[in-house]
Amino acid sequence: MKTIKLSLAALILSVTFTSCTKDNDDPIVVEENPLADYNMLTTLKANSHSLEVYSDQDQFTIGYNELFIRIKDEAADSYVSDADISWMPVMHMTEMMHSCPKSEVSKTENVSVYKGYSIFQMPGNADEYWELTFDYTIDGQAYNATERIEVTAPVDGKKKVNSFMGSDDTRYILAMMPMDPEVKVNDFSAVLFKMEDMMTFPIVEDYKVTIDPRMPGMGNHSSPNNEDLNYDAASKAYKGKLSLTMTGYWKINLKLMNADDEVLKGETVSEENESSSLFFEIEF
Amino acid sequence: MKTKIMGLPHRRMVAEPKRVSYYIGILCGLFFFATHGDAQQLKVDIGQDSVLPINLSEVIVISSFKETLEHNGHTKPLSTLDEYLEASQKVNMIKRGAYAWEPVLNDMSSERLSITIDGMRIFGACTDKMDPITSYVDVSNLSEAHVCSGQQGAEHGCTIGGSIDLKVEKSNFRPTDWVGSLEMGGESGNNAQIIGGELNYSDERFYVDTDIIYRNAENYTAGGGVEVPFSQFEKYNLSTNAGYSFGDDRKLSASFIFDEARDVGYPALPMDVSLAQAFIGSVSWLQKGFLGGFTDWETKLYANKVTHIMDDSQRPDVPIRMDMPGWSDTFGYFSQAKWKNEKHQVLLKLDGYYNLSLAEMTMYPNDPYERTMFMLTWPDVRTLNNGFYAEDVIKIKESSVKLSTRLAVQNFNIADEFGLNSLRIFYPEMARRQTRFLRSVSAQYHTNLKAVHFNGGLSYGDRAPSVTEGFGFYLFNSFDNHDYIGDPDLKNEKSLEGNAKISLEKERFSIGLEGNYFRMADYILGEIDPALSVMTIGADGVKIYRNLENADLYNVSLDTEYKILKELKWSGVVSYHRGTDQDGRNLPFISPFAYSSNLQYVHMTFSGSLAMRGAGRQVNFNPDFGEDETDAYTVFSLSLGKQFKFGSDDLYVKLGVENLFDAYYSTYSDWKNIPRMGRNFFMTVSYAIN
Ligand SMILES: [Cu+2]
Ligand SMILES: [Cu+2]
């Protein structure tokens, strides 16, 4: 399991450090890029600035993407602190355009590093693509930058995001937050949004997501002591516990319930019903 | 009570379909009352160190070649150790196939027994009990097995049910010079081939013994010609031990055993074993005089390493392929000394062992693109046990009293992080380490009035949970078809035990009635947890080891021996067992009423025996543990032996047949009712060069 906050704290203290997720033993010199341990996914060049977008992943993928941003002032050859940044990912499809759920871009403990997340529902293809636009203000001066980005399906092909119509005729997007699964009781979180219109995806609060992890490859057995995902106002995410009793492929069957405990999507798993229509997948 | 017991099997027998054998059974029964196959001639009633016969123990003489000649009454000289143990009065065997049976004493098996080789602790590496300690030695390197009941077995370690100590055969500075022998055997029931040999040198200063045995068996055939698939096995065992005497009774000795079995089928289980291997070594120092008035100071250091590779690669269809290797390494020591005067015989002993138990399970999904599934079924449990044992045999006129105690500290440490995290799924607060204090006290009394002997004793003992009971993770038990999960918070199991034996010993006739009773608190047993989801495909549920409030076990047996003529001896045993919990529920694996009879003829170089053994219908069974009502059975066996002289060399030939009437039967201790071997002819030829 990865704790970005912890990593960042370590970054800021930045002497030498090892990321929780990468086995990178190379010593990192002080004053080096605090995001050196992450992958730079793209750089947007505009207004004599370079907007560098980093991630733990090596590309934009569908599902939850935690992203780190730095703005480099090319002229001063330094990184800008105290910028105000907002962003807007937009997918250009043949028939229409839409955005996706995303967080605000916030500042981190390191003044030159900003972060946020974005949840792409679908990958781009030859005719349809995503574009990422940043609107940012430095010292009262507004700028913007746009760049086409490539969003791909995850390498392992496992489902980490669900975009679906609930029984209340609302379209929801439920995304699993990144985790490093282990054989133990794992912290497990997800974020839930509804689609108000093509461009607006507000966070849905105080619903509930029940979880039922199963191994379809082994008689569809379950695991004990899981905790359903409940809304945590502080992190604006749904948090629970996921027990994995062995390595391998797990299907996390889900049910989304509203505040009145009405099922909006998903079915109970039973002998007759092998899986829910709402699920995440994990393989490790 | 006695008459009731005796009446039972006869009524049952008549009701059985296999008429012929039963009529003969009744005939034999009439003549011989009840009977025990091979037990009697194997049983030698000698108290250890020729102390008074205060221990209700049994010594099973194991047929090495020399012993074969000495005790040419052995029914089947090259039989497996398992068969020797089974033929004894007190030991029963749980069978999962033709190989590696699990000893049961007083209706208790592995985790409640202390099983040792020359006092060394060894722990099997199989999570499914496919490799009891007794499977890692062979008759070629053993001289006898000491069986002690209940807390009388506490000398070698903490126990509830008792102990079995397997004594390695040693030339032990006897002036025999070079001795060699070769023996061969064969059996028809499973096309078994056995070949073994030994070469020993011994004089007053130095001895070295080496022996080797190889066994190879195909699938066996049950009664009526039914082949039992996956019952083959192949094994060999090499051992050597040596001693050097420094004069004035200071001796250094060392022993080493290597045992390896391959391609062992377990017809009653869903998996087989491709490799079961053990390295067992020790060094000991023995000195007659010691500090103060103490004598016979013996110190031994030992280590052993057991590897067990379980797989299902030979099985045609399984829901999912899996590998389940296990490892168990043990390092230990003991140091003991004796002290005695006219009234007291004292033994003091310090001992300890450190065991590492690790087992894994890898499952291969049917979808080749899915990753393999892996778990630790034994999370590298490190067990450290340090104990102190003391006994005093006090002579009071015609009587004697033996007082003994064992105090031990046992630590568990879960060394593997992955395994600890796995268990914490069930027990979030579980500590990595735990310490338990174990104690045993026992008082045993013996007296005799002329030919009437009385033995009686009271004792208390406890034990820590086994690795499986405390830390097992989804271990599948095919008998009750449940997955089992350990509980690290189990309380120690405690046992209050009473035993008594009254016997009449005349020159030509002896009869003894013996009984024991175990009142156990916090009896450890798996109980269904309906909230849990099974891991194994097709399993019925999940059980978690729990402490039962209490359990009661009792065992009663009656044995008789009658020397009809100088050459002709008859012996017989009947026994009755019962085990229930606080709600009167039957405990699993409790023997039904059982009986055996043996008629033995020995004259000069010729010997012969006719044996019968059987059991009543298993009335008290427990379906919750996968048991069903096992039918009554009676089987017969015959053997003939003859010794020939060629100069100073000896040739010994033995022929026999077991299950004479080819009965198709299984016993209460046959896993999932797998049938026993049908009619089986055997022959062994031994040749000794002196
Ligand atoms: Cu599984
Ligand atoms: Cu095994």
TrEMBL record, chain A:
Signal peptide residue numbers: 1-21
Keywords (A to Z) from UniProt: Signal
Keyword hit for Signal: yes
Signal as UniProt keyword: yes
Protein name, as recorded: YtkA-like
Automatic annotation (TrEMBL), chain B:
Keyword Transmembrane set for record: yes
Topology term for the membrane: Multi-pass membrane protein
A molecular-function term among this protein's GO annotations: siderophore uptake transmembrane transporter activity
Keyword list, A-Z: Cell outer membrane, Membrane, Transmembrane, Transport
UniProt xrefs under InterPro entries: Beta-barrel_TonB_sf, TonB-dep_rcpt-like
Entry annotated with the keyword Transmembrane: yes
Transmembrane segment boundaries: none
A GO cellular component annotation in the UniProt record: cell outer membrane
GO BP annotations listed: siderophore transmembrane transport
Subcellular location: Cell outer membrane
PANTHER family, alphabetized: OUTER MEMBRANE PROTEIN C, TONB-DEPENDENT OUTER MEMBRANE RECEPTOR
Name this polypeptide is given: TonB-dependent receptor-like beta-barrel domain-containing protein
Lineage, top ranks: unclassified sequences, metagenomes, ecological metagenomes
